Amino acid sequence: MGMRITGVMSGLVALLGSGAWAQEESTNQVAESTAWSVFVEDNPTECWAVSTPEEMLATRDGRAVAVRRGDVLFWVLYRPSENIKGQISYTGGYPFAANSTVTVEIGGAEFRLFTEGEHAWPESPEDDAKLVAAMKRGATAKVIGRSSRGTTTTDTFSLIGFTAMVDDAAKRCSG
């Protein structure tokens, strides 16, 4: 599991630092379908399907609160050089509470993501595959996390267009 975090963290930090995740500023967008887009980078070759939430809600002590957050993104990454095929990642735009998990709710099913800093991932490639399959069948995904300040966030992502874009990203990085 440590290698999983380290390899992806270095790539994501480089991408986030380069501004590649900011869809409106990036020049590497290669496809789009409703709420989801596909981006491709070289050196190393990476492809990902990514979306931003349709709705964002923050609560503390049961009451809605206004909060400031960085980029909130849900994506599926492919990196052939490291044999990464369909790795789910979520960035909450704030530091998660220590030792917390993020819950993803899709059509009555729940999935748990472990957290580090502002990022969250499923525990294994098998868990990634289960979550991708649920996302392909679902209409929306609710992603619920807790910040280091005790705020609970609920981000709702549309899954319309997800299947087409994740399949496109996989094809672009298939070899």
Count of discrete alpha- or pi-helical segments spanning 4 or more residues: 3
Shape category: globular
What is the CATH first-level class name?
Mainly Beta
CATH names the topology as Immunoglobulin-like
- Point out poorly predicted stretches: 1-26
The helix/strand order is HEEEEEEEEEEHEEH
Number of strands: 12
Strand coverage percent: 35-45%
Helix content: 10-25%
How much is the average pLDDT? Answer: 85
Main sheet overview: 12 strands, antiparallel
- Distance separating the two termini: 25 Å
Helix/strand/pairing category: alpha+beta
The gyration radius over C-alpha positions equals 15 Å
- The CATH superfamily turns out to be Invasion associated locus B (IalB) protein
CATH architecture classification: Sandwich
**Strand order in the sheet with the most strands:** 1-2-3-6-7-10-9-8-11-12-4-5
Domains counted in the coordinates: how many? 1
Topology, please?
Elements: H1 2-18, E1 29-33, E2 36-41, E3 46-51, E4 55-60, E5 63-64, E6 73-79, E7 84-91, E8 101-106, E9 109-116, E10 119-121, H2 125-137, E11 140-146, E12 152-158, H3 162-172
Antiparallel strand pairs: 1-2, 2-3, 3-6, 4-5, 4-12, 6-7, 7-10, 8-9, 8-11, 9-10, 11-12
